[in-house]
Amino acid sequence: xxxxxxxxxxxxxxxxxxxxxxxxxxxxxxxxxxxxxxxxxxxxxxxxxxxxxxxxxxxxxxxxxxxxxxxxxxxxxxxxxxxxxxxxxxxxxxxxxxxxxxxxxxxxxxxxxxxxxxxxxxxxxxxxxxxxxxxxxxxxxxxxxxxxxxxxxxxxxxxxxxxxxxxxxxxxxxxxxxxxxxxxxxxxxxxxxxxxxxxxxxxxxxxxxxxxxxxxxxxxxxxxxxxxxxxxxxxxxxxxxxxxxxxxxxxxxxxxxxxxxxxxxxxxxxxxxxxxxxxxxxxxxxxxxxxxxxxxxxxxxxxxxxxxxx
Length: 310
Hints:
Elements: E1 8-12, H1 17-29, E2 32-37, H2 45-51, E3 59-62, E4 65-68, H3 70-80, H4 94-118, H5 124-134, H6 140-164, H7 179-194, H8 206-218, E5 222-226, H9 228-237, E6 259-264, E7 272-279, E8 283-290, E9 294-301, E10 305-309
Parallel strand pairs: 1-2, 2-5, 4-9
Antiparallel strand pairs: 1-3, 3-4, 6-7, 6-10, 7-8, 8-9
Helix pairs in contact: 1-3, 1-7, 4-6, 4-7
């Protein structure tokens, strides 16, 4: 064993907005983690060997346990590293709802504004990759036409952040940063990277502008680097720590030992097939193996994913 089977290996790339969400969580919790740089577009042979076909970024790996989607990544980080918590006593459910809104509504508004303005400069290979991921055309002209309308939607969403900060609090849920801050902030970071003029609305939202600076100042914890080959070798040498767990309230009669497929309900719907190991209302874990990584357990959230018998 390498001694790194209990360390955080984070499969990402630097301009990935969803990776930024988790990197902010690393900063809040002041964690040490290893950045495993993955390609921006397919093919991603090491990543898909690890996940069984899931291609979206980021993915977190701890030994032979693999966590797909920021929702399950952050749940696992909170479980393993509970202090400082990402939640106040009052927002343990609400913050997840804010995060889902940030991922699905605020993010799509930001994407439309960004690519509606810079889409003509995007490389053709990126466009074709995202068309395959989304299952629909990456229509730069349509996004350009929609950009002014989406800018208004974005401004409305940022206005909600301004209202939340109106009482002088430093962060969205109170005095300390948490999940809601990480989830909303990455959308602003994404725009700053690619189209900073899209955030001109902040000139009239001073509390949100100051909040953005505070979240950015949190940083990303202690980042170290690791190669993809080393990450796969760690998975192959390790053993999953996930215990078999049946869900007593499972609505669809799924149980450990069943062969199942898991897929996202929005885009990137490549089905990942394996043997169900554990599940509850918020998570599902499946066991699978591949020559490159041996036997691994791949974890997904339930919200935003479909799980069906294969």
